[in-house]
# Entry
Amino acid sequence: MPEYFQKVGFKSPNSQHDNPYTYAHQTGGKEFWEHIAQFPARDKAMSETNRNNSEHQAWTIGLFPFHSELRKFETTEDTVLLVDIGGGSGSVSKRLKELIAGIEGKIVLQDRAVVLEGIEELPGRELMAYDFFTPQPLQGELPLMDTFSPLICIGALIYYIRHVLHDWSHDDCVLILKQVALAMKPGASRLVISDSILPETNVDIESTWMDIIMMAVGGSERTQTQWEKMLDEAGFKLHQTYQAPGTHYAAIEAYLK
# Structure
C-alpha cells in the first residue's frame, strides 16, 4: 500500500482496475474478481467466506420492514415482490422469503451466470443470470402506490442490493444504480440498499479495518453524506434509513427523484 499510494500521489483509488490489489499482484488489467477467479482455491475460499458472512449477519436483513411495506399492495403469484441483485449463494433471499411469508408473489435472485451455476434449485425463488452493469431485465410499468389498487407487476416492487456496493468505487456504484433507476417508475417500486453507514468521525476499529480492505480493491465503506451523493448522481433521493442501535449496519431506502 505505501508504494502504491506514493505512486498515485496518496489519492484514494476509484477504479477496480487500478488499486493496491491490482498493483501488488500485477493483474495485467484484470480487476480483483477476474484475477481471483484464476485461482480456484482462493475463489472457493472467498465464496465460502461471503456465504458464511451472509448467514452470520442474516439478522441485519430484517432492519427494513419488508413485510409491512409489501402488504400495502394487492399482489398475485406472478408479482415480483423483490429482486435480490448480486444475491450470491441464495442465503439472503432465503431470509427474505421468511420475512415476507404469507404475501403472494415471488423473489428473484440475480447474479452472474458463473455464480448461479453452483446453486441448486431454491424453493420459492427464481434464478436469473445478470450482470448489474447492464440493463436491468426486470422492469415495467407499475401503478402509483395505493393500498386499494390492484397490482399487475412486470418489474419488481423492491430492488434490493445487500453488501455489494462497498466492493465497488463511487463511479462504478453510480453506474450500477443507474441501471436500477432505468427499470423503475417514480412513486412505484423502490430501492433498498443493505450496507454500513459510517459516522463522519470516530469510526470504530471494525469499520476502519473493513474500509481499508475495501479500499485495497477499489471499494469503500461510506458515510450517509457519501451515500446521498451517490444516490443523487444515479437519479435517486434517499427517503429513510433504518439502522441497528450500536452498530453501523443499516438499510437505506430510496426512490427516484
